[in-house]
Design brief:
Elements lengths: L1 H23 E9 L6 H13 L5 H7 E5 L4 E8 H8 L6 E4 L10 H4 L13 H5 L5 E6 L34 H4 L4 E6 L2 H7 L19 H10 L3 E6 L2 E6 L7 E6 L9 H14 L3 E4 L12
Parallel strand pairs: 5-9, 5-10, 6-9
Antiparallel strand pairs: 1-3, 1-4, 2-3, 7-8
The protein binds 2-acetamido-2-deoxy-beta-D-glucopyranose (2 copies).
């Protein structure tokens, strides 16, 4: 019993020391400026010299050094306490001293950032969130869609298309509704009469544009995946920002209204035709990201 009690005390003592040491030192960045970085070794030695001045023992300074920045700018990072940081900050050679913060990956986690988590905890959950947009139909007015993208594959256990849906997937160049459309991508239409009035006949001789809902530009596929993209695990941008790519409402259905073309131009005449049909088709939400060059005109 006594031995057990003693070792418990010993443990408590060790953990107290541990807590104290991690609560009082942080990684700070000490910035010295852009000059004096011709010789990396001299610069590093100088950093060590500065850091040593706030320690009693050189070994402790060595232990605390995290990085010496000596190539493109001069500075260093070190594990020090607030007193040491303040001392360094007061030195003439030092431009600024700030704590190194922990940042998070962006871009594949934007919806989590907004609180729209895929697996919300009990206190975050709202009925709207838990369904992830199930059975909501989003009409996407843009440059069309690349239907093979994984973001437009069906989510597991999707219900049949609502009976109220009156839209359709039209066939067109390089766009076969039988293979392109599914329970997720339930509509595809395109409008180009207005565009051709202004720009002449669409050039589809090379594969740079398609007379169909297929997206040659990429903008529409991008915006559609932001809004309603299904969950795609281990997505990354050439290895960067790896995570689950997903739209804000990954279980929502998508109806594509292609009103903009490869050159990024969209005719208001075509846009209005799409509004006209989309509302009649039964979309619940319309997403449209285009506009005039500033100054912006009212949308009506
Ligand atoms: C910071 O560390 C120095 C050197 O070890 C020490 O003298 C000083 O008391 C410490 N200050 C705080 C606030 O812990
Ligand atoms: C596309 O090809 C056809 C037949 O070769 C030609 O008549 C037409 O002018 C071409 N269109 C454009 C816009 O180049």
């Amino acid at each position: 019993m006594t031995t057990g009690y003693r070792s418990f005390l010993g443990l408590a003592f060790i953990s107290l020391c541990f807590i104290q040491s991690i609560s009082t030192t942080d990684v700070y960045i000490v910035y010295l400026g852009l000059k004096d970085v011709q010789d990396p070794i001299l610069t590093s030695n100088y950093h060590f010299h500065l850091l040593s001045s706030v320690f009693q023992r050189k070994e402790d300074a060595k232990q605390s050094m995290v990085y010496s920045y000596k190539h493109s700018f001069s500075g260093f990072s070190a594990k020090i306490n607030s007193t040491q940081a303040a001392t360094l900050a007061g030195m003439e050679q030092v431009i600024s001293v700030f704590k190194s913060r922990i940042l998070a990956l962006h871009t594949t986690r934007s919806w989590d950032f907004m609180g729209l988590n895929l697996n919300p905890t009990a206190d975050q959950s709202s009925p709207l969130q838990l369904t992830h947009g199930d059975n909501t139909i989003v009409g996407l007015f843009d440059t069309g869609i690349w239907p093979e993208s994984k973001s437009f594959h069906e989510e597991p256990n999707m219900h049949p298309i609502p009976r109220t849906w009156k839209g359709k997937c039209v066939s067109g160049e390089n766009f076969n509704p039988k293979t392109a459309c599914n329970l997720k991508l339930i509509g595809g239409r395109y409008y180009l009469k207005g565009y051709e009035q202004e720009h002449g006949e669409l050039n589809t001789n090379d594969t740079s544009e398609y007379r169909s809902p297929r997206d040659a530009n990429g903008h529409g596929t991008h915006t559609a995946s932001i809004a309603v993209g299904s969950t795609v695990k281990t997505a990354s941008f050439f290895g960067f920002g790896q995570g689950t790519a997903r739209g804000g409402a990954p279980r929502a259905r998508l109806a594509v209204y292609k009103v903009c073309w490869e050159d990024g131009k969209c005719s208001e005449a075509d846009i209005l035709a799409a509004f006209d049909e989309a509302i009649n088709d039964g979309v619940n939400v319309i997403s449209a990201s285009f506009g005039s060059t500033p100054p912006q005109l009212p949308f009506y």
